[in-house]
């Protein structure tokens, strides 16, 4: 049966993939490759007018990026967002998934939908809203923590707190997505396993550790890796809420790339930043896959 | 009594989570109807008194955001239609048509998913500039037209289409294009719906790329226009909240109406991806 129309299929197959492939090739793979070339030139605002003025500078841009103290600040800020914001997002997503999945929960479908709402909202709009929630004097958040005798806190004005404030917004915005994926994972764990654990006298915590977590491992790995990749691309929150300040405490790598590339038009330099980010993300992804595989075995 | 306590704990935590999730959104809506300055009173007001729509009027008159609303609608709808068509064709072909080089090409695409979009953005901008597409709708839509994950998502579902069904149609002399339209598309409809909602939402919410490509107020999408205005109008809290509501409302409605298709597709596509 496999031979039926194989010749027709070869032609048809290529016809079916051709439109998508040519767009991806032309507008993704070509620019990515061109980015590598761009990163070894001194392409700047003059070169935009006449590209012939750009010259090859070898690895000069990469050296300049690595010698730029602002890059290291941006890297530190981004790593904070990845290493604190990422696990926090996943932990809260897991807690939400377990609660919504609990047999004791009333109206789980309602909570599931509600928790998912921030995911579909527009990040820029939410960053605008949260900027007012964080207002040191009139913000709702300071009012709430004032009720228990804390604060007031200058969330976005304090260099030590601006990044944690962005983490809180980001957790609020995206925990619902991971919750949904983790819920799907939780539903695949057979009830009998919990039943068996209960018969052996396992309490809630023991069955969570020995039944839920091991069975959830593949989903958990997927969610952690996807979250981490997303965390590395932090941009809109600092752009809207803090413009990278105060004292560059919220400048992320992508924000730095945007400013170098599209505000100062130092495109060669910005392209080098993009590739350094890509390299860091690749290494981080491989490390995480390796770590979690070792843990699983 | 021993069984009551856990139920109370679980439901209390769920309610706390619900309050934390809903409060920013409810406050945004409430503040958008407050007279100017009312959201900066102490202690904070939760409800507008009296409610007013003046800020919404300002958005559409003085700030002329109707243009940006139209841009956003055009860009999100355009990306969605093109993407669903192209990704369905390619996803089906990669799953169910036999052609030379298919698996190698597909593997290259999957590897490409590892590359973050930012890496190509600078050269893409220069390319579009050379093609005269900077500051146009098409320039914004182009990178959205055939996202690799969309092809991937459709392919995973198209793998389940029985080959015998397709072969039977071929024996009857149906062309591949006819088979696609008459047999494949109806079978793929659920995943196409999910993909459509997903693309509509992400295209509507997208910020970095439209910010790069669009350079004048009249052409901005709503998120870009809002970010731009929020710099100038920092003091006008209520006006900005109305702007945020306007930006979020269309996607919220799409989500609430089509929730079932979207959530189901995410659950299937997400875990396998």
Radius of gyration of chain A: 24 Å
The secondary-structure class of chain B comes to: mainly alpha
Question: What helical percentage do the residues of chain A reach?
Answer: over 70%
The assembly state of the depicted protein chains is: heterodimer
Properties at a glance:
heterodimer; A: 297 residues; mainly alpha; B: 273 residues; MetI-like fold; 73% helix
Descriptive overview:
The complex is a heterodimer of chains A (297) and B (273). Chain A has a single domain, classed as MetI-like fold (Orthogonal Bundle), CATH 1.10.3720.10. In chain A, helix 4 (69-101) packs antiparallel against helix 10 (204-232) and helix 10 (204-232) packs antiparallel against helix 13. Chain A is 75% helix and 0% strand. Chain A is built from 13 helices and no strands. By secondary structure, chain A is mostly helical. Chain B has 273 residues and is an all-alpha fold. Chain B has a single domain, classed as MetI-like fold (Orthogonal Bundle), CATH 1.10.3720. Chain B has helices spanning 4-32, 54-60, 65-96, 102-112, 118-130, 137-141, 148-158, 163-171, 176-205, 208-213, 222-232, 237-272. The longest helix of chain B is centred in the last third of the chain and has 36 residues, at 237-272. The two termini of chain B are 44 Å apart. The mean pLDDT of chain B is 91. Classes of the chains: A mainly alpha (297), B mainly alpha (273). Chains A and B meet through helix 1, helix 4, helix 5, helix 6 and helix 8 of A and helix 1, helix 3, helix 4, helix 5 and helix 8 of B.
């Amino acid at each position: 049966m496999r031979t039926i129309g194989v010749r027709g299929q070869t032609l048809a197959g290529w016809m079916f993939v051709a439109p998508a492939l040519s767009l991806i090739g032309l507008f993704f793979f070509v620019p990515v490759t061109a980015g590598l070339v761009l990163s070894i030139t001194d392409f700047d605002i003059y070169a935009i007018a006449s590209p012939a003025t750009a010259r090859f500078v070898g690895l000069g841009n990469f050296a300049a990026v690595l010698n730029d103290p602002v890059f290291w600040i941006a890297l530190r800020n981004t790593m904070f967002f990845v290493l604190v914001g990422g696990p926090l997002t996943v932990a809260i997503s897991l807690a939400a998934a377990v609660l919504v999945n609990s047999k004791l929960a009333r109206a789980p479908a309602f909570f599931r939908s509600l928790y998912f709402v921030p995911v579909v909202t527009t990040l820029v709009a939410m960053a605008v809203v949260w900027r007012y929630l964080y207002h040191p004097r009139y913000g709702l958040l300071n009012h709430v923590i004032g009720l228990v005798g804390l604060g007031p806190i200058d969330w976005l004005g304090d260099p030590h707190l601006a990044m944690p404030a962005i983490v809180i917004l980001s957790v609020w915005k995206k925990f619902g997505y991971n919750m949904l994926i983790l819920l799907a994972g939780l539903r695949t764990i057979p009830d009998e396993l919990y039943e068996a654990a209960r018969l052996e006298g396992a309490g809630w915590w023991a069955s969570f550790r020995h039944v839920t977590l091991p069975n959830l491992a593949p989903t958990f790995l997927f969610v952690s890796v996807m979250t981490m990749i997303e965390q590395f691309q932090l941009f809109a929150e600092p752009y809207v809420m803090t413009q990278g300040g105060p004292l560059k405490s919220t400048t992320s790598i992508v924000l730095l790339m945007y400013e170098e590339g599209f505000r100062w038009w130092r495109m060669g330099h910005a392209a080098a930043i993009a590739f350094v980010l890509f390299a860091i993300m690749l290494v981080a992804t491989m490390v995480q896959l390796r770590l979690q595989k070792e843990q699983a075995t | 009594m021993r069984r009551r306590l856990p139920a109370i704990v679980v439901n209390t935590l769920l309610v706390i989570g619900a309050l934390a999730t809903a409060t920013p959104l409810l406050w945004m809506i409430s503040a958008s109807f407050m007279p100017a300055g009312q959201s900066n009173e102490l202690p904070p007001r939760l409800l507008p008194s009296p409610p007013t729509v003046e800020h919404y009027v300002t958005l559409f008159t003085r700030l002329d955001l109707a243009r940006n609303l139209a841009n956003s609608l055009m860009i999100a709808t355009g990306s969605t239609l093109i993407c669903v068509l192209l990704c369905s064709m390619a996803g089906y072909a990669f799953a169910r048509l036999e052609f030379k080089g298919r698996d190698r090409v597909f593997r290259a695409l999957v590897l490409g998913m590892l590359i973050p979009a930012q890496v190509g953005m600078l050269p893409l901008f220069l390319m579009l500039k050379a093609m005269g597409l900077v500051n146009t709708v098409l320039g914004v839509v182009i990178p959205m037209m055939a996202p690799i994950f969309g092809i991937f998502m459709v392919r995973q579902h198209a793998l389940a289409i029985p080959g015998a069904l397709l072969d039977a149609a071929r024996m009857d002399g149906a062309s591949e294009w006819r088979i696609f339209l008459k047999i494949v598309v109806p079978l793929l409809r659920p995943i196409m719906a999910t993909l459509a909602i997903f693309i509509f939402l992400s295209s509507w919410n997208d910020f970095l790329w439209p910010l790069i490509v669009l350079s004048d107020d009249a052409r901005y999408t709503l998120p870009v226009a809002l970010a731009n205005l929020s710099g100038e109008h920092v003091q006008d809290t209520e006006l900005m909240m109305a702007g945020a509501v306007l930006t979020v409302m269309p996607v919220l409605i799409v989500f609430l109406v089509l929730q079932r298709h979207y959530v189901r597709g995410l659950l299937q596509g997400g875990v396998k991806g």
